[in-house]
Specification:
40% helix; alpha/beta; Rossmann fold
Length: 288
């Protein structure tokens, strides 16, 4: 790509060609186009449709430098959600940084499942809240519900609190490590969690955009038991749920049958597994 010192002005169509050339060895054309349109929409306010209508839009040197700085991050495999620093889900804004996981579509699907199942005015606990996505969506869509959200990471809780303020919801955030002894005063109608479940031995096979940038403590499990978080959460939920309370869990499709067995062993009832939009069994619920 030409030096920025040599380029004082450029139209957006020409920049797109340089952008594509810079990434062609790392991404497919479809991925490159998607990344380009996200950047120009986010930083220039130019949508895909507007670009098609006005491809000769001129970029100043400052705008070129801005886009080029983001391009360098993308070339380094930084996920686009961290490049822009925020995402939108269900008309809600979520700020992100390297201290919280990037929300996945199936987590939003889990929220949709809960919303379709539940009535308003319930007490909810979100274990391992991260960016606060689950707790904030449920608070926003289940009217007059009381929502508590835990995470062991102070830095993650800072982001979650910021997101709750941005979306104008009140949530009781607490620093809690679910693997340690838990002291609690409340009981809940619903507990939900998307805990870590990936073995550290799998790191070499994980895409570098995940292994290099996303928080390992939210993805990988220390030790040999990749179900340790599920075991602790299920054990805790037996005493922390109200009678007829419900537990929702997100997990890997390869682990979900084991989770179902754990729930049965712990006397949970009406166990139901749900597929995501890609037909993978990724969610499970069970009643106390």
């Amino acid at each position: 790509m030409p030096s920025m010192d040599e380029i004082e002005i450029m139209n957006l169509k020409s920049y797109k060609k340089l952008f594509s050339k810079a990434l062609t060895n790392q991404y497919s054309k479809k991925e490159i186009d998607s990344l380009f349109y996200v950047l120009v929409d986010f930083y220039l306010g130019i949508s895909r449709i507007k670009f098609i209508q006005e491809p000769m839009f001129f970029l100043s040197k400052n705008k070129i430098n801005l886009l080029d700085s983001k391009l360098k991050l993308i070339k380094n495999k930084m996920p686009i959600q961290y490049v822009t620093g925020k995402v939108l889900h269900k008309k809600l804004t979520f700020y992100l940084n390297e201290n919280v996981l990037i929300p996945r579509p199936e987590t939003v699907e889990l929220c949709d499942w809960i919303i379709s199942d539940q009535k308003n005015k319930i007490s909810i606990l979100d274990i391992g809240t991260g960016s606060g996505l689950i707790s904030i969506i449920l608070k926003k869509y289940l009217d007059n519900s009381n929502v508590e959200a835990w995470d062991k990471s102070i830095k993650a809780l800072e982001i979650a609190k910021k997101n709750s303020l941005v979306n104008n919801v009140k949530i009781n955030f607490k620093e809690v490590d679910v693997l340690k002894k838990i002291e609690f005063n409340n009981k809940y109608d619903l507990i939900v969690s998307n805990p870590p479940y990936v073995d550290k031995s799998e790191i070499p096979s994980i895409d570098v955009s995940v292994s290099k940038f996303e928080p390992h403590s939210a993805i990988f499990v220390d030790g040999d038991d990749n179900l340790v978080f599920y075991k602790k959460i299920i054990e805790f939920s037996k005493v922390a749920l109200n009678d007829l309370g419900v537990l929702y869990l997100e997990c890997h499709t390869d682990r979900i049958k084991s989770i179902k067995n754990l729930l049965k062993i712990n006397n949970f009832k009406k166990i139901m597994i749900k597929e995501d939009l890609n037909g993978r069994e990724r969610m499970i619920k069970a009643y106390k």
